[in-house]
Design goal:
single chain, alpha/beta, six-stranded mixed β-sheet, two-stranded antiparallel sheet, 25 helices, 8 strands, 58% helix, 9% strand
Length: 495
């Protein structure tokens, strides 16, 4: 007889040690020899602690007249159950070979806690969650997954209780639900919310909530505003089905960013791209439409002020801080706008006058050189930022709007010109928009790298290979200061 082998991959603060202790306590209370070990991971989300538990029946050990020899660490291909507190941890378990399709039940949360490398990337550095799910599905004998972080939040508990409930519901251990719940009760800490989270996860795993979930999947409501409804109907009528979800999200984003007319301009630009003869299965159209929506919703001071004063942001911060009744929440924003950003927010004529003036310019620079702390949770700070956010009605008359639209039109024109000869290269040009992001110094450095890549493309012309342009873009994304990009340009004789 072999021990039952369970590996737990969790991050700090998620109760991975508590979960391991629960499993050990449950085993020992119900006639099993149990052993647990843990290996701590690395800080800053670059590694996770692995807890490993082995269970062996005491009766069998007595029959064998000895004590079982239990392992200290999981071995690839020799694990019965893997519990992962986050999707990337499930992917790491698969990568290590701990999950095999002949024996392993994988129980994992589908939410993501992004690594430092993912968050610090200049472009979209996130690992594709769908790819992680696909790899895990193929690797495991049985794959149980749902958003366990959300379930824990709804229950007022932690994710370890949700994982414990999912483990019980999976039915892979020789213990009853009553034995699982008795283990939680013996812990004596946070018993009520832990049992609530346990029960919800058990029900979800058992499939008892499938009917309720299906009832919640009602058809998406149609927009009530006639102009918005017309845009939705235009997307559904004039564009291929496989790009409609991208366009609808782009329309929603740009209406929120500016207005209905601005979203209409977005569809006009995409319609011109849709007429291109590129034969690449529609990938060029999808990627260009996605990046176009991002570029057209560039982050200026008006956008930043609007995002910082949204009711949903205050609700999110209260939830993350776990503000209790009677407590006062203060939110302080460090604002350090440069003179250029202030001028770009004003109507073009006034902005140019201020930029080229002497006395007024020095006054503004002196007032803003040290930055300011604005408390958005106070009436004064909130109204100050709401006033800036309200300036979006003048956005089309600003210097920044004119500059960004000029760059967008040049980018679209370059894509259209190249697509006629080399659709694959045109796709790489479309994805170069990833270099332009953020605001202030981040935006300035990204734009500088973008201009450098486009200049190299202009010099090379049609002779440049798509892989070379992709390498230049990746070098720029890897180092926003441009050192790696310059090295790549020299390597390809494009400096």
């Amino acid at each position: 007889m072999q021990p039952i082998k369970i590996a737990i991959l969790a991050m700090g603060g998620e109760g991975g040690g508590v979960l391991a202790d629960w499993i050990v306590d449950m085993g020992e209370a119900n006639g099993y020899v149990a052993q647990t070990t843990s290996v701590p991971g690395v800080a800053q989300r670059t590694g996770a602690t692995i807890y490993y538990v082995e269970l062996f029946p005491q009766a069998q050990a007595d029959a064998d007249s000895g004590k079982p020899v239990l392992a200290l660490m999981p071995l690839p291909g020799d694990v019965d159950v893997v519990l992962a507190s986050e999707l990337m941890e499930a992917g790491r378990a698969v990568q290590r070979g701990l999950v095999t399709n002949d024996r392993t039940t994988l129980i994992a949360s589908t939410h993501r806690v992004y690594s430092i490398a993912e968050k610090s990337a200049m472009g979209d550095g996130r690992v594709d969650s769908n790819e992680l799910l696909g790899h895990a599905e193929r690797a495991a004998k049985r794959f149980i997954r749902f958003d366990m972080a959300q379930a824990a939040e709804a229950s007022g508990s932690v994710i370890s209780a949700v994982l414990f409930g999912a483990l019980c519901g999976a039915g892979v251990l020789p213990f009853s639900r009553a034995q699982f719940e008795a283990t939680v009760e013996r812990g004596g800490v946070g018993v009520k919310p832990s049992l609530k989270a346990f029960g919800a996860a058990f029900a979800r795993t058992q499939g008892e909530t499938e009917k309720a979930a299906a009832a919640q999947q009602t058809p998406a409501p149609q927009p009530r505003h006639p102009a918005v409804r017309a845009l939705v109907e235009r997307v559904q009528r004039d564009f291929p089905a496989d790009v409609q979800h991208v366009l609808l999200e782009g329309v929603r984003r740009l209406i929120d960013y500016q207005d209905v007319d601005y979203a209409g301009l977005y569809l006009d630009r995409v319609a011109a791209l849709a007429a291109l003869p590129a034969n690449d299965g529609g990938k060029l159209l999808r990627e260009t439409a996605r990046h176009l929506a991002l570029w057209m919703s560039y982050e200026d001071t008006v956008r930043v002020a609007a995002l910082k004063t949204r009711a949903t942001r205050f609700d999110r911060v209260r939830g993350e801080a776990r503000v209790q009744q009677g407590q006062v929440l203060a939110i302080n924003e460090f604002m350090h706008p440069r003179l250029q950003e202030i001028c770009e927010t004003l109507p073009a004529g006034f902005g140019r006058w201020l930029m080229n003036s002497t006395g007024p310019r020095k006054l503004v620079e002196r007032l803003t050189q040290k930055g300011r702390v604005i408390q958005t949770s106070s009436l004064r700070g909130y109204l100050m930022l709401r006033t800036v956010a309200a300036m979006k009605r003048w956005r089309r008359s600003t210097i920044r709007y004119a500059d960004e639209n000029r760059r967008i039109e040049e980018w679209l024109g370059r894509i259209a010109d190249i697509a006629a000869r080399n659709p694959e290269l045109a796709l790489e040009v479309a994805q170069c928009q990833r270099l332009v992001k953020g605001y202030s110094d981040t935006h300035e450095r990204g734009l500088r790298n973008y201009d450098t890549v486009m200049a190299a493309l202009q010099r090379a012309g049609a002779a440049i290979a798509p892989a070379t342009l992709r390498e230049l873009r990746d070098a720029a994304l890897a180092d926003e200061h441009g050192h790696k990009l310059r090295a790549a340009l020299v390597q390809h004789a494009l400096a």
